[in-house]
Amino acid sequence: MYNGNSEAKATLPKNGNGTSVPREVNILNGEVKATLPKKHSNLPHIDINGYYQFITFRTYDSLDDYLKKIYDTKKTNKQKQQEIDNYLDNSNNGAYLNEYILEYLNNFFKIEDKKLYDLVAFCIMPNHIHLLLKPLHKLSIVMQKIKGVTANNINKILSKSGKFWASDYYDKAIRDEKHFFVVYNYIKNNPLKLGEAKATLPKNGNGTSVPQKVNILNGEAKATLPNRFYGIYEASELQKLERLK
């Protein structure tokens, strides 16, 4: 950490739609500097107060022999996580996060915003979840609350018992503005790997659409079940459109 120069919240850079990037920065020699030390960039579970975190966790039943082999390799955590994500995107193992579970989790993450964390974005894939947020408590406490409460409620919904989430999780502290938007867009685009129909309208066990109410807008039927992706920038634009109606 640099000492001797005053720290301040800089004028935040703008993204494509003109809204500010939510992050803490230091002013050093006239430049905007991210305060995360480079030497920490590959360490697991970086719990630094005030930093945004990219977090991934998955269902317990998604673990299989192939994933175990990935964990046992000598690759970096980043390389392992990328391989795991790619595999889980195409795996049906532990794919419980659909239909009413999808709706429950969507609501849960929004309700806990400003209580457990400052929420930026999430996507709920069939067997794993990506989050971009700033913890308001120690990261371990935030994850314990998220996984503990949701596991208990999801097991009740599914009439299951035992472990629901895998015990581990992946986290990466956001370094700077570029890293922030790389992660944001990764989360935003991840559900598209499922195909447009699956990304926006979950299916039940026999492949038919989940019964739900629809809204008629401009001659099109819009499903009211939440999408797999949520992001503050898209939500902000949607709220603007709602106010114009």
What does this structure look like?
It is a single chain. With 245 residues, the protein is an alpha+beta fold. The chain has helices at 65-72, 77-89, 99-111, 139-158, 177-189, 196-200, 232-244, and strands at residues 26-28, 31-33, 53-58, 117-124, 128-135, 170-173, 214-217, 220-223, 229-231. The chain is built from 7 helices and 9 strands. It has a 5-stranded antiparallel β-sheet with strand order 6-3-5-4-9, sandwiched between helices. A two-stranded antiparallel sheet has the order 1-2. The protein has one domain: Alpha-Beta Plaits, CATH 3.30.70.1290. The protein starts with 25 loop residues before the first strand and ends with a helix. It is globular, with a radius of gyration of 19 Å. A hairpin with a 3-residue loop joins strand 4 (117-124) and strand 5.
